[in-house]
Each structure stands twice: as structure tokens, then as C-alpha cells.
Design a protein that fits this description.
By secondary structure, the chain is of the alpha/beta class. The protein folds into 2 domains: 84 residues, Orthogonal Bundle (Arc Repressor Mutant, subunit A); 206 residues, D-Maltodextrin-Binding Protein, domain 2, CATH 3.40.190. It is 43% helix and 25% strand. The chain has 10 helices and 12 strands. The strands form 3 sheets. Strands 3, 4, 5, 6, 7, 10, 11 and 12 form an 8-stranded mixed beta sheet that branches. A two-stranded antiparallel sheet has the order 1-2. A two-stranded parallel sheet has the order 8-9. The chain is rod-shaped, with a radius of gyration of 32 Å. GO terms for molecular function: DNA binding; DNA-binding transcription factor activity.
Length: 293
């Protein structure tokens, strides 16, 4: 038997009449009657008691009807789910976020994704350095990354979202804190808190590049892995940090932020994913992210 036979059976059972059932199914009555006969032959039971005016279900037919309705409901639900999957409306994705995106962008992004793509289950990993995100994308531990370029991996697709200017995070009692802006040259001899060099942090390289372009040799006091730890140490008076402007969303008592100027500097934020990933729900998610930022 096939699904058509089951749907024919339900139509006849509900209409109690082959003619009306045939009209409902947009088919001729003789093929419908033949299909029901074949179904009864395959089952080895009589499903209907027939008269010249109507048909009635037998006890076997009534029992069969309940089960067939349940089966067809499951089949229809499965088809609906498959269509939603094909359209990218359902699925699960894990997003990895660089430290600065964790505080400033993730709250907005998570709410926006929940609104725009309610059928997709999202989970998030924050405070990830770009090299760790690249490795997690390769392994499948995360599906999409908000990271800081450059990303020199041809297996990944990277779209730049925007450029964030750099600011200086200072302890409130620091001599530079009263300034409205801080020049790169002002950081000569100043204790710095930076991201780990041995983890190939993009921010580490950017900060060192900006300072050395200004003729300043960086004086590193502490290296850390997480942006939240970096700002916490600034609040503790242990040094100064150069960070992307979105980090200013992380407000701690004892920390002030000042624009970095002369030269003014910025760092890109990008969305990345594996180039061999073509699932519709991933493509929709990336599209939402690109429109948002």
C-alpha cells in the first residue's frame, strides 16, 4: 500500500460515500473503488460495508481509521518539518564571539536572531581569540564566528562587518585619565595590559603595530587571555589597555575610556564560517548578522 491508498481510505470513511469521496479527491469513482478494494485485499480484511446508497465502516475499518489518521498526521508533520529545514527555518548553530563582541554586540545579536529566526536554536561561546575561533570553525565546535581579521585560511569565508576605532582603557587615577583623548605617543613607558602574544591574538599585534608606528616601544606588564580580565586588571590599577571601542560597554568602577588618536586607529570586525558549509539555516544566520552590523 502507499500513502495515496491511505488518503483514499480516509476520504471514503469520512464521506461515507464513494461518489462524494471521489469528488473531494478530484478523481473518478471507479479508480477510487478499485484502490479501496486493493487496500482491503492487501490487509485481508473488509473495511467497509457497502450498499447502493452509502458505505459504513466495519469494526476493523473503524480501528484502522484511527491508526491511519495518526500515521498521516505524522507524515504531514514530517513533510512540514522537512520543508522548514530546507528553507533554513530550523536547526542548531553555535556562534563564537571575540571578547569585545561578547559584551557590546552579543546581547543585541542574540535578541535579533531570536526574533528573526525563531526556529533556529542558537548557543554562544564568548571571549574567544581569533586563532581559537578559526580552529573551532575547522573542527565544527562552532559554526559561525564574530572575529577580528586577518584570517589567512582559504577554507573559511570571511565577510567584514565594520571597523571599530581603538580606545584606551585607563585606571581613573592614572595621569592620562583627565585627558579627553590619548595619543599613541602618550603611552611611552606606560605599563600595558595586553592579550597573550603566544596565542597569536590579533589585538596584541594591532596594539604593538600602532605603538611602534608612533615610535613607542610597548612596555608590557601583564598578558591575559580574556578581555574581561584585561579590563578588570585596568580597574585594579595594574596598567593601561588599548581595546576596540565596543569594549566600553563593559563598565567597571575604576575604569575610564579615552579615544586613541595620533594616529587614530581602528580594527575590523568580521563574520566567518567554513566555505564548505551550505546549510540554509547557516546562510540565513550570516545574512541576518551582515544586515545587523
Amino acid at each position: 500500500m502507499d500513502l495515496r491508498q491511505l488518503r483514499y481510505f480516509v476520504a471514503v470513511a469520512e464521506e461515507r460515500h464513494f461518489g462524494r469521496a471521489a469528488e473531494r479527491l478530484h478523481m473518478a469513482q471507479p479508480p477510487l473503488s478499485q484502490a479501496i478494494r486493493r487496500l482491503e485485499a492487501e490487509l485481508g480484511v473488509e473495511l467497509f460495508q457497502r450498499t447502493t446508497r452509502r458505505v459504513d465502516l466495519t469494526s476493523a475499518g473503524r480501528a484502522y481509521l484511527d491508526r491511519v489518521r495518526a500515521i498521516l498526521a505524522e507524515v504531514d508533520a514530517a513533510a512540514h518539518h522537512a520543508r522548514r529545514v530546507a528553507a533554513g527555518a530550523v536547526g542548531h548553530l553555535t556562534l563564537g564571539c571575540v571578547g569585545s563582541a561578547t559584551y557590546s554586540l552579543l546581547p543585541t545579536l542574540s535578541r535579533h536572531l531570536a526574533t528573526e529566526l525563531p526556529g533556529i536554536d542558537f548557543s554562544f561561546r564568548g571571549e574567544m581569540l581569533a586563532p581559537d575561533q578559526v580552529e573551532a570553525l575547522r573542527s565544527g565546535a562552532i559554526d559561525v564566528a564574530l572575529l577580528r581579521p586577518p584570517v589567512a585560511d582559504p577554507a573559511l569565508t570571511v565577510h567584514t562587518l565594520r571597523r571599530d576605532r581603538l580606545v584606551v582603557a585607563l585606571p581613573v587615577e592614572h595621569p592620562l585619565a583627565p585627558k579627553t583623548q590619548v595619543r599613541a605617543a602618550d603611552l611611552a613607558g606606560v605599563d600595558l595590559i595586553v592579550h597573550w602574544a603566544d596565542r597569536h591574538s590579533v589585538m596584541h599585534d594591532v596594539v604593538f603595530g600602532v605603538l611602534r608606528d608612533a615610535g613607542v616601544e610597548p612596555h608590557v606588564r601583564h598578558e591575559v587571555g580574556e578581555t574581561s580580565t584585561l579590563i578588570t586588571l585596568v580597574a585594579g590599577g595594574l596598567g593601561v589597555a588599548v581595546v576596540p571601542e565596543p569594549v566600553t560597554a563593559l563598565t567597571l568602577r575604576g575604569v575610564v575610556y579615552r579615544p586613541l588618536v595620533r594616529p587614530a586607529a581602528a580594527i575590523e570586525l568580521a563574520v566567518a564560517y567554513r566555505a564548505d558549509r551550505g546549510e540554509p539555516h547557516l546562510a540565513l544566520t550570516v545574512e541576518v548578522i551582515r544586515k545587523l552590523f
